[in-house]
C-alpha cells in the first residue's frame, strides 16, 4: 500500500527536512511485518511529493506467533499486503516518528506551521462507505475525494467493494496530518493486527489530544480504534468527555466568545431569535426544525409557543445537544410537553430523511460556519431534499463589522466563521438558491440599522412556491 504527501509550499523541498528523509535517495526500513520504503517521485522548489510504500511479507505475517488459530487459509489469502491498515500506522510511527512528534531540528518553525498538504492513500479499506470518510475527515478541516473500486470489473452487478483510493487536502501542520492518519486509518479498516490493551487506550488519548474530544464522531472513532473492547471504550469515552467539559467550562467562564462580547450591549441575540420566532409563527407552521440548534436557545422559545406541535433540534455536536438537554430540563418537563420536542444528532451536509415533511425550518447563524463546498451540500439537503414550506435563515452582515471599534478590519466576528457576506452577496446567494429550488425569498434586517452599512444581522425568509 502507498501513502503519498504533496505540498506546494515554497520551497517545497523543505518537506524533506520535516520528514527527516532526504529527497535524493531511496531509504528502506525493516519492520516486523516486512519493509517500508521512503522515496520522492518529485522534489522541486514549487512542488514536492514524499511516498511511504509498505511491502508486507504475507508468509512471515501468517507464521507470526501472534496470529490467532482458526481459519488457517485466511492467514495466507487476505487483503493485508495490499491495503492501508494498522500496519501503515505502525510504519508512520516507526519510520516517520520524528515528524509525527512535531520535531524538526533544521526547520523548527516549520514544524509548527500549517502547510498546504495533499495526501493520497492507495488503497484504503473503508468499512462504512464513502460517507464515513467525509464524516471523519471533514470535521478536521480536510476536503475529501474518494475513488471507489468494484468487487469485480467483470461482474458490475456485484456492486462496489469497501476499497477506495482516497485523497484529502488541508492546511495543517505535518504532525497533525500524520497523527490524524495514524489514528483514523485503522478506524476505517475496523481491524488491528495486534492485541489491544490498556496501552492502546493511552496511545489513543495521547494522539487524540486537542481534536478527538470535540470530534462529532469520537464515539465511533474510539470504539473502532479500541477494537470494540467495551471496557476500554467506556473508559476512554469518559475521559474524553471530561476533557471536553473542562474546555467548555474554560470557554464559558474565563473568556466569553468575541462574538458574544460584540453583540452583548444591544442584545442582538435576543432580537435575532425574536425575529426568527415571529417569522415562523407568521408562516402558520405547526412542525418546526431548528437546524444547527446548538445549546437550545431558540428551542426554548419555540417550546413556549403552543402553535408548534412538533419541534426537532438537530446539531452535529453531541456536546451541544447534551447542554441543550440540560438547559431545557427535558427530564423534568410534563410528558405532554416533552413529547413535543426531540433532539437528534446529525449533519447538514448529508441527506437525512428524518428532516423531511416539516412545515418550517430555522437556520440561525449556521451557514457562515461552513466551507463553500459544504455550503453547496447544505443547499441540497435543506432546499431540495428536506424541502419544508418555510425556511428562515440568518447570517452576519459583513458590512456592519465596521461599526465595532473592537473588531480589527478584515477579521470575522467569530474565529470559526468561514465567511461573512455583505448584503448583496447574501441576496445573490439566496435569490439563486430560491430560484433553483422553487422558493420565493424576502429579506429583513435584524438589529439597529445604519443608513450606510445596514443592520448587524440579515435574514432571509424562503417560502416554497405552490407545486
Largest sheet: 7 strands, antiparallel
Radius of gyration: 25 Å
CATH C-level class of the largest domain? Alpha Beta
> Overall pLDDT, averaged?
86
By secondary-structure content and strand pairing, the structural class works out as alpha/beta
Assign the CATH architecture of the largest domain: 3-Layer(aba) Sandwich
Strand order across the biggest sheet? Answer: 2-3-4-1-5-7-6
Shape summary: globular
**Approximate strand percentage:** 15-25%
Low-confidence stretches are 65-71, 244-258, 261-266
Fold-level CATH name of the largest domain: Rossmann fold
CATH superfamily of the largest domain: Vaccinia Virus protein VP39
Termini separation comes to 52 Å
Total strand segments: 14
Our count of domains comes out at 2
Q: Tell me roughly what share of residues is in helical segments.
A: 25-40%
Count of alpha and pi helical runs: 18
Explain this structure.
It is a single chain. The chain has two domains: 2-194, Hen1, N-terminal domain (c-terminal autoproteolytic domain of nucleoporin nup98); 265-464, Rossmann fold, CATH 3.40.50.150. Helix content is 37%, strand content 23%. The chain has helices at 14-19, 58-62, 72-76, 86-95, 97-100, 108-111, 130-137, 174-189, 198-207, 218-225, 230-253, 258-264, 268-282, 297-303, 318-328, 335-338, 372-386, 423-437; strands at residues 2-7, 27-31, 34-43, 48-56, 115-125, 143-150, 160-172, 287-291, 310-315, 341-345, 360-364, 390-396, 439-446, 457-464. The radius of gyration is 25 Å and the shape is globular. Helix 14 (297-303) links the parallel strand 8 and strand 9 (310-315). The longest helix has 24 residues, at 230-253. Strands 2-3-4-1-5-7-6 form a seven-stranded antiparallel sheet. It is built from 18 helices and 14 strands. The protein starts with a strand and ends with a strand. It is α/β, with parallel strands linked by helices and 467 residues long.
Amino acid at each position: 500500500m502507498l501513502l503519498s504527501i504533496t505540498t506546494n509550499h515554497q520551497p517545497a523541498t523543505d518537506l524533506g527536512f520535516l520528514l527527516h528523509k532526504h529527497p535524493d535517495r531511496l531509504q528502506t526500513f525493516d519492520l516486523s511485518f516486512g519493509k517500508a520504503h521512503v522515496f520522492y517521485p518529485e522534489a522541486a522548489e514549487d512542488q514536492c511529493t514524499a511516498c511511504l510504500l509498505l511491502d508486507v511479507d504475507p508468509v512471515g505475517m501468517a507464521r507470526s506467533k501472534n496470529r490467532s488459530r482458526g481459519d488457517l487459509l485466511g492467514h495466507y489469502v487476505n487483503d493485508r499486503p495490499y491495503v492501508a491498515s494498522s500496519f501503515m500506522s505502525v510504519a508512520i510511527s516507526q519510520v516517520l516518528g520524528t515528524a509525527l512528534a512535531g520535531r524538526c531540528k533544521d526547520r523548527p518553525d516549520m514544524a509548527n506551521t500549517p502547510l498546504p498538504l495533499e495526501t493520497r492513500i492507495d488503497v484504503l479499506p473503508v468499512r462504512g462507505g464513502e460517507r464515513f470518510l467525509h464524516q471523519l475527515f471533514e470535521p478536521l478541516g480536510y476536503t475529501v475525494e474518494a475513488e471507489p473500486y468494484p468487487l469485480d470489473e467483470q461482474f458490475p452487478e456485484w456492486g462496489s467493494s469497501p476499497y477506495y483510493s482516497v485523497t484529502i487536502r488541508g492546511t495543517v501542520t505535518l504532525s497533525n496530518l500524520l497523527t490524524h492518519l495514524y489514528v483514523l486509518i485503522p478506524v476505517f479498516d475496523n481491524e488491528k493486527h495486534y492485541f489491544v490493551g490498556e496501552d492502546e487506550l493511552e496511545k489513543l488519548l495521547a494522539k487524540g489530544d486537542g481534536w478527538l474530544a470535540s470530534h462529532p464522531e469520537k464515539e465511533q472513532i474510539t470504539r473502532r480504534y479500541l477494537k470494540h473492547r467495551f471496557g476500554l471504550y467506556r473508559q476512554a469515552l469518559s475521559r474524553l468527555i471530561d476533557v471536553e467539559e473542562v474546555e467548555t467550562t474554560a470557554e464559558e467562564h474565563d473568556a466569553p466568545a468575541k462574538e458574544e462580547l460584540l453583540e452583548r450591549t444591544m442584545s442582538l441575540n435576543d432580537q435575532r431569535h425574536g425575529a426568527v420566532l415571529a417569522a415562523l409563527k407568521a408562516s402558520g407552521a405547526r412542525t418546526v426544525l431548528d437546524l444547527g440548534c446548538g445549546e437550545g436557545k431558540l428551542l426554548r422559545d419555540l417550546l413556549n409557543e403552543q402553535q408548534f406541535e412538533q419541534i426537532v433540534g438537530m446539531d452535529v455536536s453531541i456536546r451541544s445537544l447534551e447542554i441543550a438537554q440540560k438547559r431545557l430540563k427535558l427530564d423534568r418537563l410534563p410528558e405532554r410537553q416533552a413529547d413535543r420536542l426531540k433532539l437528534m444528532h446529525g449533519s447538514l451536509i448529508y441527506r437525512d430523511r428524518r428532516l423531511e415533511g416539516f412545515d418550517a425550518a430555522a437556520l440561525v447563524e449556521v451557514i457562515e460556519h461552513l466551507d463553500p463546498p459544504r455550503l453547496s451540500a447544505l443547499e441540497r439537503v435543506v432546499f431540495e431534499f428536506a424541502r419544508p414550506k418555510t425556511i428562515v435563515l440568518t447570517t452576519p452582515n459583513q458590512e456592519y463589522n465596521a461599526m465595532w471599534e473592537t473588531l480589527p478590519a478584515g477579521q470575522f466576528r467569530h474565529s470559526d466563521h468561514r465567511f461573512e457576506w455583505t448584503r448583496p452577496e447574501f441576496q445573490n446567494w439566496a435569490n439563486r438558491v430560491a430560484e433553483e429550488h422553487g422558493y420565493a425569498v424576502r429579506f429583513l434586517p435584524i438589529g439597529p440599522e445604519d443608513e450606510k452599512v445596514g443592520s448587524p444581522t440579515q435574514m432571509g425568509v424562503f417560502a416554497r412556491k405552490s407545486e
